[in-house]
TrEMBL record, chain A:
<dbReference type="Pfam" id="PF01547">
    <property type="entry name" value="SBP_bac_1"/>
</dbReference>
<dbReference type="InterPro" id="IPR050490">
    <property type="entry name" value="Bact_solute-bd_prot1"/>
</dbReference>
<protein>
    <submittedName>
        <fullName>Multiple sugar transport system substrate-binding protein</fullName>
    </submittedName>
</protein>
<keyword id="KW-0762">Sugar transport</keyword>
<dbReference type="InterPro" id="IPR006059">
    <property type="entry name" value="SBP"/>
</dbReference>
<keyword id="KW-0813">Transport</keyword>
TrEMBL record, chain B:
<keyword id="KW-1133">Transmembrane helix</keyword>
<keyword id="KW-0472">Membrane</keyword>
<feature type="domain" description="ABC transmembrane type-1">
    <location>
        <begin position="70"/>
        <end position="266"/>
    </location>
</feature>
<feature type="transmembrane region" description="Helical">
    <location>
        <begin position="141"/>
        <end position="160"/>
    </location>
</feature>
<dbReference type="GO" id="GO:0055085">
    <property type="term" value="P:transmembrane transport"/>
</dbReference>
<feature type="transmembrane region" description="Helical">
    <location>
        <begin position="181"/>
        <end position="203"/>
    </location>
</feature>
<dbReference type="Pfam" id="PF00528">
    <property type="entry name" value="BPD_transp_1"/>
</dbReference>
Automatic annotation (TrEMBL), chain C:
<comment type="similarity">
    <text>Belongs to the binding-protein-dependent transport system permease family.</text>
</comment>
<dbReference type="InterPro" id="IPR035906">
    <property type="entry name" value="MetI-like_sf"/>
</dbReference>
<feature type="transmembrane region" description="Helical">
    <location>
        <begin position="70"/>
        <end position="93"/>
    </location>
</feature>
<feature type="transmembrane region" description="Helical">
    <location>
        <begin position="155"/>
        <end position="177"/>
    </location>
</feature>
<protein>
    <submittedName>
        <fullName>Multiple sugar transport system permease protein</fullName>
    </submittedName>
</protein>
<keyword id="KW-0762">Sugar transport</keyword>
<keyword id="KW-0472">Membrane</keyword>
Length: 435, 280, 293
């Protein structure tokens, strides 16, 4: 692409102004000073983490920019890789996006700079998603092991048992509706990561991709029963008006959580921080329980959200950038103090997660419950899960089809069939062989 | 007209005023509320008065970056508007009162340029500017904003209408240079249309979202539209979510006020200019 | 005689136009050319980049998502544009006939939304449409009806149309009002003497006189509508039914920035620009012809 552009611009006669901006190639300031590494990330309270890194490193200094949250930052990364210039050295990337950037040849294998040593530091499922064989493409930071947040006061008041299975959850939803016709058991929040976490918990493994094995081969299996049961279960709750359909994080959904309109939220390890910051009226009335199971006595779990640091192929000094990716959080006590207590991240560093300071933390919002005692075992229980190299398209199409179902223009049991067809069609057009 | 005959139009106008004003009233009221009150108190009435708390938090959040956004927006729109107006004035006058090879073609093309969807240009412009190495600088926002075919068109129409050739000829007989004629004779005569073009391009750049969104990656360089949307989106994400609705609302109010004031103050200047474009 | 005088200073004239011309070349001609160039090749994720000629255009014109989005925008415009311009025209005629202080206040207030950036306006309406704390959703309950769900599929286009109408009616009204102000009073004084009512004068004299201004406002609105992007882009956070291809421009954005297919995105933009251009130009020619006949 870049070469094409050059030819074109030259042809028009504009290249006269183009030229090297004079940055030394290795990222140093040329006078033997520290190597400067640029980082894009949108973690809250990240400034302190950067300061901690810079204070503890003489040879490497981090220049941090927040270019926007999630999709906003990805859009900029993608433009930068299309243009061939403009990407940072280190970029925060969520797990489900790693293959997407891999296939754009945007990520450096940090294994060649020794990042493989970190394997034992991190939760196994996270390390599996961040790596491909012995190639290390990302350093995990935070995750979102899922559990059920519920209004303990309302459940107790109406004598509804906390659901241990999804069948009990549906029964609880009926009882709730009988007790309060305006209430909903939860909202079907139109969120790709959330729905994915539920499918993950149901044992559904719809995607498969490995760049090292075959660049152009991808597995799409959204129509298997483990995936179907999730969508049909939730679709049924929506159709019976037991579940609302407000998108998560909107003012409506936030207000509904805080007003008794929603009684539960299948939430994630980072939720305690989020809800404590934005729900005031119902603080102290919530509690956390393990996720309801599909079969009684099972212990299947899922994850919603989580992110990593990656080194981009435009990094001027990938070795120094690898150090930054590994050590910004890594085992830094100072960084994790900010990460846990100010940014409310769920740590994927095993020692940090199992530290009594984390597991034993009592949350006022949950009436003193030590909720991490529930989240930590979930993370330990999580198994492998793969994503596609075009996950934006998959989530986008899945949510568009779900939106059709919630608005009544599609039957719920055709949602995954339609998504499967669209995704396979898209993948083939992009030159993939689909399994 | 007697009062009875104006009653109906006045009622209609009152309804219209309500329609146009309610959202603005809402944002003015909402800006005085804390985050929890925002979600739990009636939308169009006051709760506890937190405007100053919100303002203080607004200018403190993310190391006071909102102040930068305010200044950036003013600089981008001010410089772009002055530049675009100048270019439009020169070109509009040149097209209206001179003849040169290719003029006909250019004039026809001008009409077409007005119709090119601006968003279609942003992506290729990004790729070109990134090759020259000026993306993620203020120039990446300002330079493309200098393009105002509509402004040039307005000036051309206005000059044709209101600058008599005899006057130019008289000035030429006095041996005034062409540039001097432009500055001292033409510009004072076309001031209304220049104010119009200036305000149109000012608003266009002040309100532009897509161009700076694509061009800039450094939060310190963002204009208000991109910055505030970034904050809004921060509340939409999973890990590490923060809800900043009260800041987005207070920040939006503060972003709107200067333009509203500018328009109310300058409206009598630019209205006469706006008429020219509409006439042809 | 006149023409001869103008050719006396060709160099000066060209120099006056030159700076603008350079900007046009750098930020309009070159980007358009480059977009076209991009659209002639494809880059698939697995296979990389290759020259494909007009394949992207064939794909665009047979892409059901794009065609659906296009149709949606056409339907949207067919309703929203006449409604908005109708209100704007009525307002402009009222302002031209009624000159009280109240009318001046109305003029100022109607214009204010124009000063609100479209993204912020859309965010604002997103909050205002909210079921739980917006002021409008519960209006029907006053008469015992079901509360509005502005983000439901049935109301979504109307909700979006309202945002656009709110933002642009005042602007168009002022443009039309300015055109009316430029109409010499003598043109309808005779009609007044004949005993015509204000409404009759407005419809039979004033509207025909500012026909060109109305046509111009319509063209700009059509161009804006075909590029419909910011409002659905923002509103998608409130209303999940706003799919990736809800409008053609949104689709082009998603193709480039979400799916990394900059080539197809360029083709969509280019095809859209071409359609808009042809439609607008046809409209201009049509209205010109009418004026001449």
């Amino acid at each position: 692409m870049l070469n094409r552009l050059r030819t074109f611009v030259a042809a028009v006669g504009l290249l006269a102004v183009a030229g090297c901006t004079g940055d030394p190639e290795d990222g140093t300031d040329g006078a033997g000073g520290p190597v400067r590494v640029t980082v894009w990330a949108w973690y809250p309270e990240f400034k302190g983490v950067v300061e901690a890194f810079n204070a503890s490193h003489d040879d490497i200094q981090v220049d941090w920019t927040n270019v926007g949250t999630g999709p906003d930052q990805y859009a900029k990364l993608k433009t930068a890789f299309t243009a061939g210039t403009g990407a940072p050295d280190v970029a925060m990337v969520e797990f489900q996006q790693i293959p997407t950037f891999l296939i754009l040849d945007a990520l450096v294998d940090m294994g060649q700079y020794g990042a493989g040593e970190d394997e034992d530091l991190y939760a196994e499922w996270a390390w599996q998603q961040a790596t491909d064989g012995d190639k290390v493409y990302a350093i995990p930071v935070d995750g979102g092991p899922m559990a059920l947040m519920y209004r303990k006061d309302l459940f107790d008041q109406h004598g509804i048992p906390v659901p241990a299975t999804w069948a009990e959850y549906a029964a609880a939803a009926e009882k709730m509706k009988a007790a309060d016709p305006d209430a909903y058991i939860a909202s079907f929040g139109s969120d790709g990561g959330w729905l994915n976490g539920l499918m993950w918990q149901a044992g559904c493994r719809p995607y498969g991709y490995s760049l090292t094995e075959a660049r152009d081969r991808v597995k799409i299996d959204l129509t298997n029963p483990d995936c179907e049961k999730v969508v049909e279960f939730y679709g049924d709750l929506v159709e019976r008006d037991l579940m609302a359909t407000d998108p998560f994080f909107t003012a409506d959904a936030t207000a509904a959580l805080d007003s008794g309109k929603y009684w539960t939220w299948a939430a994630a390890g980072w939720t305690p921080g989020y809800v404590a910051g934005s729900l005031k009226n119902t603080a102290g009335k919530w509690a956390v329980a393990p996720m309801p199971q599909w079969a009684e006595g099972e212990d299947a779990q899922g994850d919603w959200g989580g992110s990593t640091f990656t080194v981009t192929t435009q990094a001027k000094n990938p070795e120094a950038a690898t150090v930054v990716a590994r050590e910004l959080f890594g085992t830094s006590e100072e960084a994790w103090d900010i990460g846990l207590n100010k940014a409310f991240l769920y740590p994927l560093v095993k020692d940090v997660a199992s530290d009594p300071a984390f597991t034993g933390k009592a949350y006022e919002f949950f009436n003193g419950q030590k909720v991490n005692e529930i989240f930590v075992p979930v993370s330990e229980k999580l198994g492998d899960f793969d994503y596609t190299p075009f996950q934006d398209f998959v989530f986008g199409d899945l949510l568009d089809r779900c939106a059709e179902a919630t608005s009544g223009t599609r039957e719920w049991d055709t949602v995954l069939d339609a998504t499967q067809d669209n995704v396979v069609d898209y993948a083939k057009k992009q030159g993939f062989t689909v399994e | 007209m007697n009062p009875a005959r104006t009653r109906v139009p006045h009622l209609v106008m009152a309804a219209g005023m309500l329609y146009f004003l309610v959202p603005l009233l809402w944002i003015a009221i909402a800006a005085t509320k804390s985050q929890p009150d925002l979600l739990s108190t009636p939308a169009l009435w006051f709760a506890d008065f937190n405007l100053f708390t919100n303002l203080a938090q607004l200018f403190r959040e993310d190391g006071g970056v909102y102040g930068d956004w305010l200044v950036n927006t003013a600089v981008y729109s001010g410089v772009s508007a002055v530049g675009a107006t100048l270019l439009a004035a020169l070109a509009g006058y040149g097209l209206a009162r001179f003849s040169f090879p290719g003029k006909r073609f250019f004039e026809t093309a001008l009409l077409g340029m007005i119709m090119v969807p601006a968003t279609a240009l942003v992506l290729p412009t990004y790729l070109i500017l990134s090759n020259i190495g000026i993306v993620n600088t203020m120039w990446a926002v300002i330079l493309p904003s200098l393009l105002s075919p509509f402004g040039t068109y307005l000036v051309r129409v206005y000059v044709t209408e209101s600058v008599p050739e005899e006057l130019l000829d008289a000035a030429r007989l006095d041996r005034a240079s062409e540039l001097r004629i432009f500055w001292q004779v033409v510009v004072p005569m076309i001031r209304p249309v220049l104010v119009t073009v200036f305000l149109f391009t000012l608003v266009a750049t002040w309100n532009n979202y897509f161009l700076p969104l694509v061009m800039l990656s450094d939060a310190d360089l963002f204009p208000l539209t991109v910055g505030l949307t970034t904050w809004f989106n921060t509340g939409q994400q999973e890990a590490g979510t923060r809800v900043l609705f009260n800041l987005v609302i207070t920040g939006s109010l503060l972003a709107i006020v200067p333009l509203v004031i500018a328009f109310v103050l300058l409206q009598r200047f630019w209205r006469s200019g706006a008429a020219t474009g509409a006439l042809r | 005689m006149r023409r001869k005088r103008m050719t006396d200073h060709p160099v000066a004239g060209a120099l006056f136009v030159l700076p603008f011309f350079l900007v046009v070349v750098a930020f309009l001609v070159v980007p358009l050319g480059y977009a076209f160039w991009l659209s002639l090749s494809s880059r698939s994720l697995a296979l990389g980049e290759r020259f494909t000629g007009f394949d992207n255009y064939v794909r665009a014109f047979s892409d059901p998502v794009l065609l659906d989005g296009f149709l949606r925008v056409v339907v949207f415009g067919a309703v929203q544009i006449p409604v908005m311009l109708g209100i704007a025209l009525a307002g402009a005629l009222t302002l031209d006939a009624v000159t009280t202080r109240f009318a001046i206040a109305f003029r100022l207030i109607a214009f204010m939304p124009y000063a609100v950036p479209a993204v912020l306006g859309a965010l604002m309406w997103g909050f205002l449409y909210s079921r739980t704390f917006g002021p409008f959703a519960d209006l029907p309950t006053v008469v015992g009806g079901e509360p509005f769900d502005f983000f439901s599929t049935d109301l979504l286009l109307l909700s979006l149309g309202n945002i656009v109408t709110w933002a642009w009616t005042g602007y168009n009204m002022i443009v039309l009002y300015s055109a009316l102000q430029a109409v010499p009073r003598e043109m309808y004084e005779a009609a007044l003497l004949d005993g015509a009512t204000q409404v009759q004068i407005a419809l039979r004299v004033k509207v025909p006189v500012i026909r060109q201004a109305i046509a111009l406002a319509a063209i700009f609105t059509v161009i804006g509508t075909m590029q419909f992007f910011v409002e659905p882009y923002v509103m998608a956070r409130f209303a999940p039914q706003i799919s990736a291809g809800y409008t053609p421009n949104l689709y082009a954005y998603n193709q480039a920035f979400a799916y990394s297919d900059f080539h197809y995105s360029a083709a969509i933009s280019f095809a859209l620009g071409f359609v808009v251009f042809v439609a607008a130009y046809a409209f201009v020619l049509l209205t010109r012809k009418r004026r001449q006949s």
